[in-house]
Amino acid sequence: MNTGDTAWMLTSSALVLFMTPGLALFYGGMVRAKNALGMLMKNFIAMGIVTVTWIVVGYTLAFGPDIGGGLLGGFDYFGLKDVSNVIPEDELGAIHGATVPDSVIMVFQMMFAIITPALISGAIAERMKFTAWVVFIAIWSIVVYAPMAHWVWSANGFIFKDLKAVDFAGGTVVHINAGAAALAAVLVLGPRLGFRREIIRPHALPLTLLGAGMLWFGWFGFNSGSAFAANGLAANAFIVTQIAAGVAGATWALIEHIRHGKATTLGFASGAVAGLVAITPASGFVGPVGAIVIGIAAGVICFLALQIKFKANFDDALDVVAVHLVGGVLGSLMVGLFADSELNPLTSDGLFFGGGVEQLGRQAVAVVIAFAYSFVLTWVLARILDVTMGLRATEADERRGLDLALHEEQSYVLAE
Q1: What are the backbone dihedrals phi and psi of residue 309, each rounded to the nearest 5 degrees, phi first?
Q2: Which has the least CB within 10 A, 126, 181, 243, 254?
Q3: What is the DSSP track for 130-198?
Q4: Quick one: average pLDDT of 180-187?
Q5: How many domains does the chain have?
Q6: Distance between CA atoms of 304 and 317, rounded to whole angstroms?
Q7: pTM of the prediction?
Q8: Per the domain annotation, does 322 fall within a domain?
């Protein structure tokens, strides 16, 4: 065991968990005041529910020894059986390295499993029942997240081993997965009351900016921690993460200024998060120049993608599709353009580094698989829950606000 690598991985795990409260504030400031606590709770409850599902069955399905075909892990680690504080001696060592104990790998991956379903909450904001949300994320974390994590991040997963597509820190497993699921969920759930007929404004943008800052801070653990060691690869991931976020935020603000004459705080925050999303799958494979291009592309393309929900007429309340789905697709494909095998031999060189289109093709196939699997299974799950227990709050509860209707609390109580 390398104590430096282990300390870095424990720190990174805490940083990734810190992102979920950051996401709660990021989303919470963008909803109306009457729904702020409901949004915070949908994020915080993921830290409870997914911890349980991950410990009991999620981790073993994602990272247990493969049971055939690279599709799923077995039940060897059910209830964390045989997950110990020693160096892994199984297939995990092939992809994660062999200097960090099993238990540290498990807890680091747990934090990814927690934030991924929490991302979906931004799309279904202000109208989904809390009880339905709890059941939804419990099942989704097992039947959607865990298998995809196995395909992409387990040494014998078919996307990693056979397709040879790569995802350093979560472009497919986290962002495309959550974005596709968000799209499926809102199609089943339907739009908020007043969607496209009345202006629905964020109630507290300072909270959103605070949340964006927490996300940005935690993202260094998200990406750099995915090196599974305190080494040069982690340093590169740290650097390109900062570059992409800063460039994308500035690009988004510049586009706003050009198109509307004013740059907004929400725009910069959204752009920075889009840059963070896009660099996530590429952070262990591209250098600073690639990060600049990815940041610019994320700022431009994710900004333009905001129009998708209006043209397709679905209510993605807080733009999960535009930022996470589109950003995840963009970053995953950019690996095929800017990957440098000298930085990380797990991938072939990208198109602009003399590698041809082979890696780009692999990345594209992985993107299609991730989107299709998550969208279809999430749509089926949402339909089943809608028929059996109902997904949506009543019209009266929605008009009153989910804070009082579902939690009997208020975000702000002004003294008389």
Answers
A1: -65, -30
A2: 254
A3: HHHHHHHHHHHIIIIIHHHHHHHHSTT-HIIIII----SSSIIIIIIHHHHHHHHHHHHH-PPTTTTTS
A4: 98
A5: 1
A6: 16
A7: 0.96
A8: yes
